[in-house]
Amino acid sequence: MPDLADAASIRAAVADLPVAFASVTAAAGRIAGRVERAPLVASLNLTERCGHPVHLKLETRQPVGAFKLRGAMNAVLALDEPARRRGLVTASTGNHGRALAYAAREAGVPAVVCMSALVPLNKVEAVRALGAEVRIVGRSQDDAQAEVERLVAGRGLTAIPPFDHPDVIAGQGTIGLELIEDLPALALVLIPLSGGGLAGGIALAVKTLRPDVRVIGVSMERGAAMAASLKAGRPVDVTEEETLADSLGGGIGLSNRYTFPLCRALLDEVVLLTDDEIAAGIRHAAMEEGETVEGAGAVGIAALLAGKVHADGPTALIVSGGNIDPTVHRRIVKGDFA
Ligand SMILES: *Cc1c(COP(=O)(O)O)cnc(C)c1O
């Protein structure tokens, strides 16, 4: 990581990155009016605790309940006409799969989502309800991904991956533009970190406009692939483990091209949390902020509550998503999570 006290070195690093700031501003124009401009709301409770203004960027308010709609919408709208006619494909069963199905339907583009036979029926139905064709193949995520590759080769479908794609990253980066517009005094941003599309995109926008803003990625302690990769200096695999922040699981890809270089150049720090700390974040969101937030979306709140990050000025937390099993949510809010 560069010396982030030095604005000139950041500007030089940004100029060298595999995704350009201009792609983020182009994405903002493309997706305007097709995704929500999620509200940035003050948290009185966290502001009081931290002694600095703390704001929540509520991406839970997107139509599919997560920020992933920004990247998916930008990637779909960036396709040329022949690619639109042939259609899209992905193997994601989570927030990206839903976002891509929604974006494709809005744009009138056919979409196929490949899933293994082990994916729970509620996830299958959620994607189907958004108008995508669901193809059940094999018994693992690898089998589903192999089907994606067959459809790309055989039918000329365009695969849109969940994070390591310039248009996806640029779409997520539009959050950074909105933060600087809405909170010009911004000093610190906490961003949930998995594959790094969200953190890489936001950091690209924020550091280009305001190199002095600290940008920190937040992951769970166990199975944090980007944190392990940054430490190793190259993309590495980690063992996937159960976590309350289920949207933060999974690897970054050993042949990662975009998000690893972005995160390496632009993140000031990565903070890791236990499941107990994440549960406290979910509980705080429900009890103090009146927001239903999934584990991945609560890590910014959790990092402040756990004292693992100290706010030193106006702070924005990216509340990235709200898709949590209601039964699990109720149990956590009641406090019987261990
Ligand atoms: C995908 C996702 C993340 C992580 O985004 P990356 O771009 O993979 O780092 C965080 N929160 C939620 C709710 C997500 O769906």
TrEMBL record:
Residues 35-321 form the Tryptophan synthase beta chain-like PALP domain. It holds the Pfam family PALP. GO terms for molecular function: L-serine ammonia-lyase activity; pyridoxal phosphate binding; threonine deaminase activity. InterPro entries: Ectoine_EutB, Ser/Thr_Dehydratase, Ser/Thr_deHydtase_PyrdxlP-BS, TrpB-like_PALP, TrpB-like_PALP_sf. GO terms for biological process: isoleucine biosynthetic process; L-serine catabolic process; L-threonine catabolic process. Its cofactor is pyridoxal 5'-phosphate. Coiled coil: none annotated. Keywords: Lyase, Pyridoxal phosphate. Belongs to the serine/threonine dehydratase family. This is L-threonine ammonia-lyase. It comes from Ancylobacter aquaticus.
